[in-house]
Design brief:
Residues 1-19, 21-41, 271-280, 291-298 and 492-518 have low confidence and may be disordered. It is built from 12 helices and 2 strands, in the order αααααααααααβαβ. By secondary structure, it is mainly alpha-helical. It has a two-stranded antiparallel ribbon with strand order 1-2. The protein has a domain at 51-274 and 309-422. The protein has helices at 3-7, 27-30, 45-58, 62-143, 168-212, 222-254, 258-272, 284-288, 303-317, 320-367, 369-456, 485-491, and strands spanning 475-479, 496-500.
């Protein structure tokens, strides 16, 4: 074998023995009796023919080389398709990313609308709670303020200020506010549901985009390079095997009787089994009897040249089987690499399929944006309509609160007026009592004087001289009119004093200190 085949070949993944090596020591020519290699004269012809047949069988490795070439071709196709899919996927990915950005921007706009309206709603609820709380507090104060019995008829059950209030308006107003609040909450819930559905759709698209890992989508040529390198090394190894076969042919042909023995053994071996697995092996007949040298004994090699040739054949023959095995192992090692290349293509196909599905999903979301925008407009309109109702109700609540506050203040002033009138009555009663005491004093003086008249000179006077002589003293009484002031003003003044006179011929037998009736 030419030493350049093994010395200059690139490092092979099959190992250092991927190509046949021929290490011929310098002592081979100077010391033909060296015993570390079998001397050509000691190599039987049958062994040389056996080496030839083994070399011929090793050429069946062409089948592995063909398979390796097919693997390289398939890997090349996989890589080219993966590169195209990678480019398509990248373009689709960034288009999808732009579409998702647009959807995100619209979603943020919806969220701003929702947050702004919700803040206004919360502020309105806070104001309404404060207003309704004030109104409720006033109503509780009315309920806890009893009406003084002096203002009510005798025997009536106790009442409070709330009993004189028509609560229907309050309940209707509060119910109207509750309805408005419920409508606002329903509008918020509906729009929040729309935003949630939009966010869910966008999140699903983003999840699909994240799953494809587009930065790692670019296919690596490493698999193709490894397969190409190993296929090339296998071809170099096959060249070495072919060269070894040629040397075996030449050695057998130059040996006496070798050609006939080789042809006979080759014919027998061809009948027993097939070694090529469909690969056309070289014909020994053609090689042993080439056209250029129809006579086998023509142009024989010298003994030294034959010795050197046989030495090379013997050295290389020991490496034929390991080399063939390593070619098979190399082919087997290429199978997972091809599978990895196929897997890389399938990954690109899966990524592109996922991107297409994500794009269709995002496009369906984009088509629904019109309905989302309509939902936003409806949300704004419902909020505005309910806001007007809330403003009206809040104004009415404020008016009722002020009215009931005035009601409570007026009741306090009413009690003050009652106390004023009661004090006035007491003053008048005191004045009348003082007048009654004075009248009684003068009545007593009159009684004593009348008795003196009887005892001093009354017995000497005839009764018919002064017809009114025996009439009693005129009585004076203060009468308090219990009618209302308006009625009293329309009928008779109150209070009034009315002089009364006892009937003639009768005496006053009553208690002169009888108090004025009222």
């Amino acid at each position: 074998m030419p030493s350049s085949v093994s010395a200059e070949a690139a490092p092979s993944p099959v190992g250092s023995s991927g190509a046949l090596t021929h290490r011929r020591p310098a002592s081979l020519r100077s010391d033909p009796d060296a015993d570390h290699h079998e001397a050509p004269s000691a190599v039987p012809l049958e062994r040389l023919v056996e080496y030839l047949m083994e070399a011929k069988r090793s050429l069946a490795s062409m089948h592995q080389l063909v398979q390796a070439g097919n693997m390289v071709a398939r890997a090349t196709d996989y890589h080219e398709r993966a590169v195209k899919l990678s480019a398509d996927g990248s373009f689709l990915y960034w288009g999808l990313a732009s579409l998702v950005q647009q959807l995100d921007a619209m979603k943020r706009g919806f969220i701003r609308t929702y947050d702004n309206q919700k803040k206004k709603f919360d502020d309105n609820i806070h104001l309404l709670d404060a207003s309704v709380g004030r109104l409720t507090g006033i109503l509780d104060k009315l309920k806890n303020t009893p009406v003084d019995p002096v203002f009510r008829p005798e025997g009536e059950e106790s009442k409070n200020l709330k009993d004189f209030v028509d609560e229907a308006n309050v309940h209707n107003l509060i119910n109207a506010l509750k309805d408005c609040i419920n409508e606002l909450k329903a509008a918020e819930t509906s729009f929040a549901g729309d935003i949630f559905r939009l966010e869910t759709d966008i999140t699903a698209v983003k999840a699909r985009m994240k799953a494809v890992a587009i930065p790692d989508l670019s296919p690596s040529p490493d698999h193709l390079m490894q397969l190409s390198e190993r296929s090339f090394q296998m071809s170099q190894t096959l060249v070495s095997l072919t060269q070894h076969f040629d040397k075996c042919v030449k050695a057998v042909r130059e040996s006496e009787g070798g050609m006939e023995l080789a042809l006979r053994i080759d014919a027998e071996a061809s009948q027993e089994a097939s070694y090529n697995d469909g690969v056309q092996l070289p014909s020994l007949t053609h090689r042993l009897q080439p056209d250029d040298h129809p006579n086998p004994k023509h142009d024989l090699m010298s003994s030294a040249e034959l010795h050197e040739l046989v030495q090379i054949v013997v050295e290389d023959a020991a490496e034929v089987q390991p080399t063939v095995r390593e070619m098979c192992e190399t082919l087997e090692s290429m199978t997972p690499i091809l599978a990895a290349s196929r897997e890389q293509l399938e990954t690109c196909e899966g990524v592109c399929t996922a991107l297409v599905e994500a794009f269709y999903h995002a496009e369906s979301v984009r088509r629904k944006m019109a309905s989302y925008q309509a939902a936003e407009r409806e949300f704004r309109e419902r909020i505005a309509a309910e806001q007007d109702t809330i403003d009206t109700c809040e104004s009415q609540v404020t008016e009722l609160t002020h009215f009931y506050e005035g009601y409570i203040n007026a009741y306090g002033q009413l009690k003050t007026e009652y106390r004023r009138r009661q004090a006035l009555d007491e003053k008048i009663q005191a004045i009348l009592q003082k007048a009654a005491d004075a009248v009684e004093f003068y009545r007593e003086q009159d009684r004593v004087a009348r008795q003196n008249v009887e005892s001093s000179f009354g017995a000497f006077l005839p009764r018919d001289l002064w017809v009114k002589m025996d009439e009693p003293m005129r009585e004076f009484r203060v009468i308090l009119d219990t009618k209302s002031l308006d009625t009293a003003a329309a009928t008779s003044p109150a209070p009034t004093t009315a002089p009364t006179t006892a009937p003639a011929g009768s005496r006053d037998t009553g208690d002169p200190r009888e108090p004025a009736s009222s």
